[in-house]
Amino acid sequence: MRFFRKVVPVLMILSSGAVARADFDVVPYELAGKIVTGGEDDVTGQVNITERVYGFHFDEVASHPFIITDPGFNNGTSFTVGVFPNNGLLPASKDLAFTVLTNLEYWDGRGAVSFGAAPVSVSLGLNHDLLIDATSHVPDISTIGNTAAAGRLHVHIESDLNYTDGTDKNPPNAPDGLYLIGMKLSLPGSGIADSDPIFVVYNNNLDDAILDDAIAWANANLVPEPPTWSLLATSLGAFAASRWRKRRRLPE
Description:
By secondary structure, the protein is of the alpha+beta class.
């Protein structure tokens, strides 16, 4: 029963288009010589085998409201084996890295979703040293973690929302709203192609429903249907059929 509880929602996602949930870890894995991304929620156990938009919340810790240890990157065995194509594996002993592709975008949460340049006094810090703002981003490759001998990793990088006074919890602070960046994942030296762009939406002190609207907008406007989806659907369908045949051969 464990297999069918996870695969049925995935098939629905493949047929109707992915809608990300907030606080999903990024699940990177290799498929047909390329990094593909899915999503996994440690709390609910929900998984998507294809995902390219991820939402997170600032203000999770009262003493450090503008610093969070997200996004996370996780292709662990507990939820990928038997569910994700290639069991969620990446090439062994390679450094998974990210490259920022966009400047920092912002929407105040009012009216229809509409992202534009972030306020000039705001920047987003990643991995302790990369700064992204309304007019610039550092295009350098930054290491997330090593896949080790098993071809797996679970690493969270740090994001911090900076205003003119830094990340002091007292006003003035970065304006409430949604902040968005794009990045791609790579495995330098592996021969595996980089991922399609993925997008991270950060919620600063707005309702969850507004973050959901922003995620839906990003899926509709920033994420073209990746060519690997048909391959994913074929792979998953064949896997499901194989599991079904094996179950039919079991004695009553």
